[in-house]
Design brief:
The chain is mostly helical. The chain has helices at about 20-50, 60-85, 95-125, 130-135, 140-165, 180-185, 190-225, 230-260, 265-290, 290-310, and strands at about 10-15, 90-95, 170-175. The radius of gyration is 21 Å and the shape is globular.
Length: about 300
């Protein structure tokens, strides 16, 4: 990417999370463990769905793609943050900062659309079960996936177009990764319109998607409560897992981009939670609340262990 910025800024300095060495050591240990665990958990979900024929359904196809996105979200910020905890001078190049912003917003947009697709899949499965195979065909699943990536990429590119040429008058970013609110604060100009654009674009997308999901889950919940069949408990369990993931993902995102230019310690805490904890909790939530997934994982692990013994 050719740098088109008119300022002399070639790199940025992160202020990081804390100046305490003991706290940084603790954060490094916890973050490393959570990052490795999230990578293993999400990779296990992807591998299990791909290898177990019982899970070759629209629900698990979307779930495996969500796990892939969680790997991307975590990997966009966590490795550098963990590495920087050992460094006194935490820097990132201009190009690296722009790439990080692009990637964060692209995969974030993809995840929003995937969560809406998963809510639609649950709505069809619970509210219109007789039309499930028609409405959730393989072509529809591919359409959801392509739409998610197109929306994510367009959302990210549109925002970068407005900031990549900003004249910058500083290098200090009060964070541990690059994102739009902190980046725009360094501009040598009145940024009110840009701040408003970020709030409208990212904030509206986050809040809008969140309310669409909440409304859809309320409709599904009322449908489930109307039926006292044996499948209601399973439906409620799956639904609660979806709602938990939605709240974990959208909670920090709405805070960042609805009030994106406040500077508080809560910002950094939520950013750390969103970058490290949420990608770890998503596979935990889906596996602990899904008996079919737990059984499939045990089958896969037994198969792999048996294969290793034979080898």
């Amino acid at each position: 990417m050719k740098r088109m910025n008119n300022s002399v800024t070639s790199e940025f300095v992160f202020l990081g999370l804390t100046n305490s060495w003991d706290t940084q050591l603790l954060l490094c240990l916890v973050s490393s463990m959570l990052y490795v665990a999230s990578m293993m958990g999400n990779c296990l979900i992807i591998f299990t769905v791909a290898s177990d024929p019982h899970l070759h359904s629209p629900m698990y196809f979307l779930l495996s793609n969500l796990s892939f996105i969680d790997i991307g979200i975590s990997s966009a910020t966590s490795p550098k943050m963990i590495f920087d905890l050992f460094k006194k001078h935490k820097v990132i190049s201009f190009r690296g900062c722009i790439i990080q912003i692009f990637f964060i917003h692209a995969v974030g947009g993809v995840e929003m659309v995937l969560l809406i697709a998963m809510a639609f899949e649950r709505y069809v499965a619970i509210c219109k079960p007789l039309h499930y195979l028609t409405m959730m065909s393989p072509q529809m699943c591919i359409f959801f996936l392509i739409t998610a990536w197109v929306v994510g990429l367009i959302h990210s590119v549109i925002q970068l177009v407005f900031i990549v040429n900003l004249p910058l008058c500083g290098q200090l970013l009060d964070s541990f990764y690059c994102d739009l609110p902190q980046f725009i604060k360094l501009a040598c100009m009145n940024t009110y319109r840009l701040e408003l654009l970020v709030s409208i674009s990212s904030g509206f997308m986050s809040v809008g998607s969140f309310f669409i999901l909440i409304i859809s889950y309320i409709v599904i919940l009322f449908t489930v409560l109307k039926h006292s069949s044996s499948g209601s408990h399973k439906a409620l369990s799956t639904l609660s897992a979806h709602v938990t993931v939605v709240v974990l993902f959208f909670g920090p995102a709405i805070f960042f981009y609805t009030w994106p230019f406040s500077s508080t310690h809560l910002d950094k805490f939520l950013a750390l939670f969103d970058a490290v904890v949420t990608p770890f909790l998503n596979p935990v939530v889906y596996t602990l609340r899904n008996q079919e997934m737990k059984v499939a994982m045990r089958r896969v692990l037994r198969h792999l262990m048996g294969y290793r013994q034979i080898s």
